[in-house]
Write a structure and sequence with these properties.
With 144 residues, this protein is of the alpha+beta class. The protein is built from two helices and ten strands, in the order βαββββββαβββ. The protein has a single domain, classed as 2,3-Dihydroxybiphenyl 1,2-Dioxygenase, domain 1 (Roll). The strands form three sheets. Strands 1-4-3-2 form a four-stranded mixed sheet, with helices on one face. The chain starts with 7 loop residues before the first strand and ends in a 10-residue tail after the last strand. It comes from Novipirellula herctigrandis.
Length: 144
Amino acid sequence: MSELRPFHLAFPVRDVQEARRFYGEVLGCPEGRSADTWVDFDLFGHQIVAHYKPSLSDSVGTSVHHNPVDGHDVPVPHFGIILTMDDWKMLRDRLFNTEIEFTIEPYIRFEGEVGEQATMFFLDPSGNALEFKAFNDLSQLFAK
């Protein structure tokens, strides 16, 4: 397999300044290029771009569906990143000190099974669902 390359994801937000505060200050993502209607962020080495969508405020939270996984209702769609366990714990602890309302509280999913992972879910201010996860053993990422 070739070297892992950063991914790029563009997603809608209802307010660029609100996205700057959330992704920049709460999640600690450095800001890249921007304009009045969009802003780039460095999400642990990956490029995400928040694009202003004026009509989004009318539909926040209405397009999220759920899929049952390990006894929880996982929001779909969602995006996020796989962190090291230490980075996941640091982010979890930072988020516990904010006013983040978790959709799924941080916990160990599939504990003692193939694919065991730490995970947590929450929404950004525009209603986009995010998942941050970590594996003690990254070889379990695609294990069956």
